[in-house]
Amino acid sequence: MSIFDRFRLTGKRLFITGGSRGLGREMALAIADAGADVILVGRDVPSLEKTAGDIRTLGRNAWTLQADVGVPEQCEEACKNALALGPIDILINNVGGRRENIPTEDMPLEKWRTLMDLNLTSAFLCTKLIGKAMIVRGQGGRIINICSINSLVAGRGIAGRHYETSKGALMQFTRATAVDWAAHKITVNAILPGGFLTEPNQRWSKLHPEVIATFRAQIPLGDFGQPEDLGPLALYLASDASRYMTGAALVIDGGYTLW
What we know:
Rossmann fold; about 15% strand; seven-stranded parallel β-sheet; 7 strands
């Protein structure tokens, strides 16, 4: 067997939240390129259809589900609709974001809860529903949670500490679930991206250019990552190449957290 065969995903199916743009899109395309069919979940129909079309160009099947998984009821509905399409082998909980720059002392409780639902509850619900289906099916599976380097360190010069809190909790949820489900041959791992110039960060660069400039200056490799840099890492965790890795938190940040 060639080493490259361990990365093949022929016959597998991916469910990814926030899969139509940015990091989600690149992970979806990488996994489709390795042979998997893809179910994309997102809020924006045009971008969902664009990414689905690009996946079909690779010769894979693609389905789109419009939903805001930050709303628990919509998240549950999307998972149920996805499972109705057939077995799911790979789950990527990608949806999330800081969105707000509100200091802790001024953060309204309802806003806090809404952002926790976006960054943490969505991953819990997808893991619960799709992971349970993996357990019942009895053929193992792969779950990848997209955390952040803010799971480890606080962002500099910016408020909105709901983000650090929820992403830190998601990393610990990753570890706990990995322990619980190892017996079912389901691996659960986390990716911790640093600075990537996705659309949200491009908006932050316009609203708070000093924050982005400070961030870039602290990266040993000298610049932000590109979304496509995340695809190979997601493919590794989705494939049999990583069969002996579970509960891991893999940092990809150009060295930012090294100092």
